[in-house]
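[SOLVED] Predicted holo structure with adenosine-5'-diphosphate

Edit: marking solved, answer below. Original request kept for reference. I posted the sequence and ligand SMILES and asked for the 3D complex as structure tokens.
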Amino acid sequence: MGKHVAVLMGGWAAERPVSLKTGAACAAALRDRGFRVSEIDVGRDIAAELVELGPDVVFNALHGPFGEDGTIQGLLEIIGLPYTHSGVLASALAMRKDRAKVVMAAAGVPVAEGITLSRFDLAKKHPMDVPYVAKPVADGSSFGVYIVKEGRNHPLEELARADWPLADEMLVERFIPGRELTCAVIGYPEGAKSFGVTEIKPATGEFYDFDAKYAAGGSIHVVPAQLKPNIYQRIQEMAVRAHEALGCRGVSRADFRFDDATDTLVCLEVNTQPGMTETSLVPELAAHAGLSFGELVEWMVADASVKR
Ligand SMILES: Nc1ncnc2c1ncn2[C@@H]1O[C@H](COP(=O)(O)OP(=O)(O)O)[C@@H](O)[C@H]1O
Ligand SMILES: [Mg+2]
């Protein structure tokens, strides 16, 4: 029997259903490759559960708050269990889109002009000229993303609602027209490498919203993205640079917008816990680069680490 891998999934963040899919896919692939696998739906008692179980490695298949923001990573550091993906600092930093942008910009990665403010202040007036994008500063899966354009109602009522399910802090960014691109990075010890760039074309709706991300046929992935070679190369370089500037480990995925009309390239965010079903963006790009899903998850387990 191979190593005992505990796959952490589920949890209580809004991205729970997505994480359950990632976890199930990674667990199946690891079993196929001879690992002994325990699937754990994460609750508040996760520390005790892991100490009791005593796996060799933790495969982190969580997405969103608690799984992607440095908190579960800190807990694993304290228990002393090697875990996959980024560590405490990179996870916490990448999760805060506004702070991550400061670090990325300092490293020469282009980012969109933006301001951070509470949803209540945003509900009062436009913080910048339209068009702009308002999104929670630390959430994923396009939850709570508003594209505010000319002649459209300000999303005032929704933002001020009492049962707002997300954190109060919002990031408002200049709207970057153009194409939606994403680039997967693998942090080989000898230096991070890109797996390539995908263009995402939402099939319905006007941006890469939740349905476009997860509904069957919600979006078309063009692999590799059809771009001028110099732009394709630039995106790969910027994704690797962002991965390194934030101090990521394992795999990460950087989201970009590119406007052909003005040659404007902007990095929106780095995902330290990208979706990992067999048809997700990172595995798809890994396959394009010659690494199967099974090989990828096996590499991730081998790459898992913890401070000594
Ligand atoms: N500044 C922007 N300009 C244009 N579109 C944006 C901008 N910010 C976000 N979007 C749209 O919203 C989607 C989700 O934004 P993103 O920052 O990647 O957050 P999430 O963590 O929800 O994926 C993007 O994939 C893009 O379609
Ligand atoms: Mg994104």
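OP edit: The first strand starts at residue 4 and ends at 9. Thanks to everyone who chimed in.
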